[in-house]
Amino acid sequence: MRRKGSFRLGILAAILLFASVFYYLPFYVSKPGMAKELGPIIEVEGGYEEEGTFMLTTVRMGRANIYSYLTAKLSKYQEIFPLEAIRAENESDEDYTNRQLHMMDSSKVNAIEVAYKKAGLPVQYQFNGIYVLQVVPGMPAEGKLFTGDRILDIDGKDFRSSTEFIEYVSSKKAGEEVTLTVEHQKEKKQVSLALQQFDQSSDRAGIGIVPVDDKDIEVDPNVNVKTDEIGGPSAGLMFSLEIYNQLVEEDLTQGYDIAGTGTIASDGTVGRIGGIEQKVVAADKAGADIFFAPNEKGAKDSNYQAAKRTAEDINTKMEIVPVDTFDDAVDYLEDLSKKQAG
């Protein structure tokens, strides 16, 4: 009888153990990801070769179960975030993924523009409409528009930017109706929405979306950036450096392995990102010689300051370099001496 009881307890424990792996807590856990070479990802037609490498850095992010939560609690370079810090209210997994992928696409477009303009090459755009990046809960668009939808016109009017779209909607009052032509999952439809006040303390009214430009960039020579399922905007700086290096004859890498992170705006400004400490750890494990970090104009809590502290803590030989702009990174690389073998 004792053996049967022990066997049953063992089975019950195994079932509970198995179930707890798939029971998700209302948290996300992030940990150091990888440093991935950009040469195989980015190809400029007829571009120049490089002796070293540029690398993007990533963090691994996932929903926490009991074990990953406890592991993160005990790990120095793993972080725990409440669900609402990562995903918007009522945002589905699909919406979150679409938002991350679109931010990556926008990051690629900005990186291409910055690199080609720096190389003195012309850039043109093909505007495709307004991309719905997010839908605000409780507003008229909820349940009628979805993340990933493309707005083609409003009240029969075409727009050339999300700014023009916002200005048009802002000119109307709560209760007024607008009709949108929307492309949803490759099918066109018309959606009519009555504007609503955002809150009682404001006269501003809207339909409740976060709109961004949906556009393709046209350049010569052609460039292909294969990002697959990588999401988010944080690889922008490193994309722009790799593209520019393939466009110009001089090899900016000088034989070094160069990692880094930071968003890139169309004017070349480098912006703050999340998970900088974990990205420094990932770059160090990959053997990077140099790591670019957003300087945020010297702010005390900048990404650069956090990256420098992490580098000291893990005792890396990697050089941490602060940058505010794309030009800062290029200027630093142009002053490098060629890496000596061995």
TrEMBL record:
UniProt-listed SMART domains: PDZ
Principal EC category: hydrolase
Enzyme active site: 234, 279
Single biological process term from Gene Ontology: proteolysis
Keywords (A to Z) from UniProt: Hydrolase, Membrane, Protease, Serine protease, Transmembrane, Transmembrane helix
Domain of life: Bacteria
Reaction equations catalysed: Hydrolysis of proteins in presence of ATP
Record-annotated PDZ domain positions: 108-186
EC number: 3.4.21.53
GO molecular function, one term: ATP-dependent peptidase activity
One Pfam family it belongs to: PDZ_2
Transmembrane regions listed in the UniProt entry: 7-25
Family (UniProt): Belongs to the peptidase S16 family.
Protein name: endopeptidase La
Protein source organism: Mesobacillus campisalis
Taxonomy of the source species: Bacteria, Bacillati, Bacillota, Bacilli, Bacillales
